Amino acid sequence: MNSNNKDSIPTYFPRIFLLISSLILAGLIFFLKGGYSSQSQLDHLSRQSLSPDIALANGKPTIFEFYADWCEVCREMAPYMSSVKAKKEGQIDVVLLNIDNPQWEDLVEKYEVNGIPQLNLFDKNSVPIGVSLGIKNEYELSEIFNSMIQETPLPDLSGISQFSTKTKSLNTQINQFSQNKIISPRSHG
């Protein structure tokens, strides 16, 4: 009986060692690729987000970030967004909206999200001031945050479209007239 136990131990030992080694190696690869930290930063930012309605109504500039959990670029940008957001805490709102969540489908359509990450930028009065498409590094995000907080023109960066002040005031006037029923799309003047 003792001789059988001695023979069976060496047979299981290499298998157990191989299994443990494989698990350790898989864990190392996961952490070295940044899988945990970038995904957790996206999750953290998402959990910290106000609802879009509250963010647009509280008198602060607001950024809607449209993203997806599977988006490598979104995960790559998450640490930059997290860092800049922390430095500007209380001065600007960042709202993360997962395009795969049916809850945000109406906003994805409304803001014509065609690629991610997409940042929709609003001034403190909830007026859209621009859109940024694609990854932004920490410096670029900081420049965007600063211009929004200081109410200056958005920085001239790749992938940013700034809405004209004239366009904003014309749209505001049209909306006001439509609400007061002075003019409608079907009226002739």
CATH class of the largest domain: Alpha Beta
Helical fraction equals: 40-55%
Q: In the CATH classification, which architecture of the largest domain applies?
A: 3-Layer(aba) Sandwich
Strand content: 5-15%
How many helical elements?
7
CATH superfamily of the largest domain: Glutaredoxin
- CATH topology descriptor of the largest domain: Glutaredoxin
The largest sheet has its strands arranged as 2-1-3-4-5
Q: Spell out the helices and strands N to C.
A: HHHEHEHEEHEH
- Derived from helix and strand composition plus strand pairing, the structural class reads alpha+beta
Shape: elongated
- How far apart the termini lie comes to 103 Å
Return the average pLDDT rounded to an integer: 81
Instruction: Work out the count of structural domains.
Output: 2
Unreliable spans are 167-189
Give a quick account of the main beta sheet: strands, pairing sense, barrel closure. Answer: 5 strands, mixed
Number of strands: 5
Radius of gyration: 25 Å
